[in-house]
Write a structure and sequence with these properties.
- The protein is mainly beta and 489 residues long.
- It has a domain of 113 residues.
- It is 3% helix and 58% strand.
- It is built from one helix and 44 strands.
- A six-stranded antiparallel beta sheet has the order 15-16-17-18-19-20, with no helix packed on it.
- The longest helix has 17 residues.
Length: 489
């Protein structure tokens, strides 16, 4: 009987969900309606003060006050310096920001690059399945790089990194550098080729491997080097891997250990080859996370360790705000208390200073469960005292673990988010994958609180409610919020 009642309840909830749909609009930071809540979907145009909106299954563009600018005729729109559009077929065309057609739909996809050139892509079928081919054209439609490469990465109007696919008994790809006339600058014999911070090229090169009959079977003996555009090597020795290089240093792997060398012609050591891993998340700013042979991590800043190797977990907190530092890191380390060992979690800054103290055991919360709102407010996510492991409580505390916002079953987060898009449902924009959501960080001091199916945006410093009463707040940008409300079908 209980199972039957559960089934009836599930069917009722599904039917109720199907009988409703969501209408989206835009509010400002005072809660005033900027765009009426009457669209099937809305997205910010992050490049211009306008909105992409969907109505009756078609996309168009609204201006900054919600007036129709581009009519609702398109299956897909993507905006940058120009607008790419898709009608009822599988090809894309190009228009300017006023909706004037510049190029009719000819290619399966196209992308206008910063240089003004256009990367175009088509798909062909081979015995291995889909095989995309890419090339480069200009605004007049002239072909600069023919559609014969697996991928093309322009580094200027004149030079392009290209990747070409080869099929032997195995399938592999090699990369090189060509100019717009098709002349080879760096031969297509590198498994990896990318431009470093200083404009040189980091190359991963393999030797070709053959079987006993001389048949090419793949690639062996990987070696990495740094080349200038004239094919001069900046490093003296070959390395197993290079994951970063700039004008003066390179992060390299040798004999299965990572270190940092100076690019002085002699590969003088900057950091010895003693480490199992160097994560160069912020190498451009001199920041790196280093792991030793005991799997302990430390923070490196401009070649100097600002922490000891005491952390079991040390991860950059992406999109975090801080009044005093550029970067924050979530960490976990062992702490001895009353003769007992505990793995405690906290937050440090780029100087190695503790921002949130080690007050919580990793058995209760993980490093991902402490989220900074500002320098003295942190969202804590933890299990409730109940039996269900799905009973999660959220609250906000200060550095002293004093409660700013009480713990409850509402969800608290520092970003607005689009709903999860299931597999098989086409994305509305190329920026949204079928397996993820797109999220946008709220301003410092603001949090999104989800409770009883409704969302509230609140400033915890002023205790002011900015938006409340909407089932969805899916994006934030430049003082505007995209919100959704349920309506009957």
């Amino acid at each position: 009987m209980g199972r039957l009642l559960s089934l009836i309840l599930c069917l009722f909830l599904i039917q109720n969900a199907l009988s409703q749909k969501v209408a989206f609009g835009v509010l400002d930071s005072c809660g005033n309606v900027v765009v009426p809540l009457e669209y099937e979907d809305i997205e910010f145009d992050y490049f211009h003060t306008q909105y992409l909106a969907k109505k009756n299954g078609k996309w168009g563009i609204l201006d900054s006050v919600g007036n129709e600018k581009i009519p609702f005729l398109y299956e897909k729109l993507r905006v940058g310096k120009y607008i790419t559009y898709r009608l009822d077929n599988d090809t894309e065309g190009l228009m300017d920001l006023d909706g004037n057609i510049l190029m009719s739909p000819l290619y399966e996809s196209l992308c206008v690059l910063d240089s003004g050139l256009i990367e175009v892509r088509n798909a062909k079928f081979d015995s291995w399945g889909d095989n995309n081919t890419s090339g480069i054209i200009n605004m007049q439609g002239d072909t600069l790089v023919p559609l014969e490469y697996e991928a093309v990465y322009p580094i200027s109007n004149e030079r392009f990194i290209v990747r070409k696919q080869y099929i032997t008994p195995k399938r592999f790809s090699l990369e090189g550098l060509i100019d717009r006339q098709g002349n080879v600058i760096i031969p297509l014999e590198y498994t990896e080729l990318y431009r470093s911070e200083c404009g040189d090229f980091v190359c991963g090169k393999y030797e070709m491997g053959n079987d006993e009959n001389g048949v090419l079977i793949g690639l062996v003996n990987e070696e990495y080097s740094i080349l200038t555009s004239t094919l001069e090597k900046r490093n003296k020795f070959e390395y197993e891997e290079i994951n970063y290089a700039d004008d003066t240093i390179a992060v390299v792997k040798n004999n299965k250990k990572w270190g940092i060398i100076k690019l002085d012609g002699n590969d003088s050591p900057f950091l010895p080859f003693e480490y199992d891993e160097i994560e160069t998340y912020r190498a451009g700013e001199g920041m790196a996370i280093v792991k030793d042979s005991l799997c302990k991590k430390a923070l490196l800043s401009n070649g100097r360790f600002v922490t000891d190797f005491v952390y079991d977990e040390l991860d950059l907190i992406r999109n975090s705000f801080s009044d005093s530092c550029r970067f924050l890191y979530s960490v976990q380390k062992e702490i001895i208390k009353d003769g007992e060992s505990y793995n405690m979690v906290g937050i440090i800054n780029e100087k190695g200073e503790t921002v949130f103290p080690f007050l919580y055991d990793s058995q209760d919360i993980s490093t991902d469960d402490i989220v900074p709102v500002n320098d003295n407010a942190f969202i804590i996510e933890k299990d409730s005292d109940g039996d269900s492991r799905y009973d999660i409580l959220y609250g906000i505390v200060d550095k002293e673990d004093k409660t700013i916002f009480p713990f409850d079953k509402q969800k608290i987060q520092t970003y607005a988010e689009r709903p999860f898009i299931p597999w098989g449902v086409p994305p509305t924009q190329s920026s949204i994958s079928c397996s993820m959501y797109i999220s946008s960080r709220l301003p410092i001091d603001e949090v999104l609180i989800k409770k009883d199916g409704l969302c509230t945006i609140m400033n915890i410093r002023t205790n002011k409610t900015i938006i409340s009463g909407y089932p969805q707040v899916i994006e934030y940008h430049n003082g505007k919020y995209i919100v959704g409300q349920n309506i009957e079908n």
